Amino acid sequence: MSQSHKKPLIELRSSPHLRPQLRQTPSVDSIMRNVVLALLPICAFAVYRFGISALALILTVLAACLLTEALFNKLGKRPGSLNDYSAVITALLLALTLPPGFPLWMGAVAGFIAIALGKAMFGGLGYNLFNPALVGRAFAQAAFPGAITSWTPAGVEGRFVEFIPSTLTLPFTKPPEVADWVNQVAVDGFSGATPLALQKFAGEMTAAGELFTGMVAGSLGETSALLILLCGLYLIARRMMDWRIPVGILGSAALVGGLFYLIDPTQYPDPIFILFSGGLMLGAMFMASDMVASPVTPLGVWVYAILIGVLTVMIRLFAGLPEGVMYAILLGNAAAPLIEQLTQPRAYGHKRSKQRKEQA
Amino acid sequence: MGLLSWFRPAAPRHGIHADDHKADTCGLAIRRLPFAPRLIVPLAQHVGAPSRPIVRIGQEVLRGECIAEAGGHVSVAQHAPASGTVEAIELRQMARGDVGQAIVIRVNQADSQQAIGLPQDLAGLSREELLALIQQSGMVGLGGAAFPTHVKLDIKPETPIDTLLVNGCECEPYLTCDHRVMLEYSEHLLQGIDLALRITGAGKAIIGIEDNKPDAIAKLQGLIPAASPIQVRAVPSFYPQGAEKVLLRTLLGREVPSGGLMSQVGATMQNVGTLAAIGRLLPRGESLIERVVTVAGPGVERPGNYIIPIGTPVGFVLEQVGFHGKTTELVLGGPMMGQSLANLEAPIGKGSSGLLVMDEAAIQQEQRKSYPCIKCGECVRACPLHLNPKELGLLAAKREYALMAERFHLNDCFECGCCTLVCPSAIPLVQHFRIAKAVNRERAA
Ligand code: SF4
Ligand code: SF4
């Protein structure tokens, strides 16, 4: 008992005295690290399809997000939160929703907005109401409506040595039209439209196989449903993501979509197309499942997921916006606190009706 | 472990699966520890009024002799755990670091240490007589609560109960004393249950045992005759299956009303250790002067279950079992709800089910950084009572203690610690809740 003068022989703590086991309770940084890990193959695939433009865009958004996070940490005198990887996730997700030829400076602005408005304003990690990446994306949609709908084809020859012309647009200038460039490089018949737009505005269907493997036009990460599915399954298998959210969203979207398809197969797309086109897969797997902006009650999670699934299909089919999933998730985020309040499980030893009254 | 440890095992619907660390001790027969030179018998080692000493300083006492009488209805008598001389009746350091009155006995090691007691025939005794005997024997809940047993068994005829539940879950990691008691004192346990059935008037008894103790389940099932009102039921193993409220729900599908008592829904619960002690001591006319304690943890050289006289200083126990110098934390009770020990002179009490010695490795396994709540809902899924620790935690951070009690059932929380253990942000949730409750109590007073 004499050997330890520097440290007391016994320490006092309040229970529980058991240390958490990493296996059962991963810490925040290990969860976040794994989400990043799961997003990396999707990013790599985007670079493979779209070349250095995609790589430059991802890196730019990443830099913008990290710098913004660091800036607000400094302003708010918060301890560094860069090492929790949450800003990295926001950056990667945001980049994946942008078109490959998106001007880099616009990407930087979107990244700044995502962190500043989407997260820091609410108080940082854990306090945000909406998924920050989607806030950035919604901002880009409103501020740069032209650039965010300029699609370029995947798999262009020379994509690893040459930038898409619009990528290097000088800050605060209008990007050049990519149509001419597209015509030069494109395999015949590329209209610069995504499968969703093709279906919606031209009544043309893209084969499910192409959707599945991602060799179609679209934003960086929206297009390989298979890869997104696999990466999402990794997180689910490690129990770092709530499986109910993707299952609920995809299930309800397929169901509602299928219903319309049954009513009129000529006018509405089939459910397979709904599932594998656009940002639905990425949104369902990686954006709606953002823990901070989704409800925590088991029942509430289902309500939230089904709401997003149904809204996505409704917006896609009946509004002038093919990319419904983004708005659906933002609406779902907005409704999450209410959903959570209404789905509080009945506490042990309380009667449900009484509890409701208490809460009201 | 390899790949397996890479995937997280499925968690139970509510509660947690922690590594149970029971393998070290659950296969070892119960052994006896020698008497310490001095025993410190606290007068308030149970819930309720402290006992009143009835011995003088310098008086010779015999092992099992009554040395303090019950200080009220919710109180029990105390008995000398060893023959010797009353050396002092004074304030002594207790487990929490607080001080309390205790009778200090200098043990006469030369004595035969035969416990005194007159065998008695219990067959003709009335309910009230049996309850009085139990109170006089110093019996309290041995599962850790240390609530006087005669009060809990005193079921009023106006509110009859149908079932006596017997808690053999022992869901706390490390602890195996109940497990060993079920194996080695099975007959005493069944006698104790018979007595408790007589006293409470319950029609049947159910022994709930976690399914990670198949040997205990088989042993008891083999001893119970076909027509007996006692049945054994295997229940899923998770923490806190052995919490009264949780086990009641598991076994009978009933819930204790918020702020109420289990007898309101027609049941009462006793720990296997308590009933085994009643079944063993009452017919012999002996009293509660020793108990089985699990001594375990990474810092212990000879872990096991030991019969330890009440009042044995913790330091003496550690000397006997051997411990490593790297010890950093001592816990009285289980690792989830037990008490961090402040002092090696603190005595083993009637409610001490375990003595755990944690070493540096176990403590520093991971000093986690605390993050803001990321609303992952792990705590909500883990809370066995379906409370909302997430909301409680957010309110606690704003010191909205009154609101926590009003809207989120703070007072129903029994501090099992599941929420703290699963929180990936390493927020000390249950610790916050204890503070909140204490502040609320103070404000109310
Ligand atoms: S400590 Fe309280 S709030 Fe936390 S899990 Fe246990 S009962 Fe629920
Ligand atoms: S477990 Fe921790 S981080 Fe997750 S919701 Fe509960 S308090 Fe928040």
Q: How would you characterize this protein structure?
A:
The complex is a heterodimer of chains A (360) and B (445). Chain A has 360 residues and is mostly helical. Chain A folds into two domains: 159 residues, no CATH class; 151 residues, no CATH class. In chain A, 56% of the residues lie in helices and 0% in strands. Chain A contains 15 helices and no strands. The longest helix of chain A has 24 residues. Chain A is globular, with a radius of gyration of 23 Å. The N terminus and C terminus of chain A are likely disordered. Chain B is an alpha/beta fold and 445 residues long. Chain B has three domains: 281 residues, 3-Layer(aba) Sandwich (Rossmann fold), CATH 3.40.50; 70 residues, Beta Barrel (OB fold (Dihydrolipoamide Acetyltransferase, E2P)), CATH 2.40.50; 77 residues, no CATH class. Chain B is built from 15 helices and 17 strands. Chain B has a six-stranded mixed beta sheet with strand order 1-14-13-17-15-16, sandwiched between helices. Chain B has a four-stranded antiparallel beta sheet with strand order 2-8-7-4, with no helix packed on it. In chain B, a hairpin with a 7-residue loop joins β13 and β14. The longest helix of chain B is centred in the C-terminal third of the chain and has 16 residues. Chain B is globular and about 65 Å long. The N terminus of chain B is likely disordered. Classes of the chains: A mainly alpha (360), B alpha/beta (445). The interface between A and B is large, with 52 and 76 residues. Bound molecules: iron/sulfur cluster (2 copies). One iron/sulfur cluster binds next to α11 and α12 of chain B.
